[in-house]
Amino acid sequence: MYPRLQLARDLLSDNGVIFISIDDNEQANLKLICDDIFGENNFIANIIVQSNKRGQTYKQLAKTHEYLLVYTKNPDT
Length: 77
Prior knowledge:
alpha+beta; two-stranded antiparallel ribbon; 2 helices
């Protein structure tokens, strides 16, 4: 994942924004990786997206959402 995100950052235009969708299993790890690659000051938002109103049951808990991490290459964008 790390090399792919580095490449994505290199390909991103100076005023570009990247949206990365992920479930809650790896959301915290992805945030740390993106903070390292894009910089903490380039973090824009962590958007919660409702993906399934009825939920998907994992170990008796119904998960109904995913996360959308938003980063920019330039914080002035």
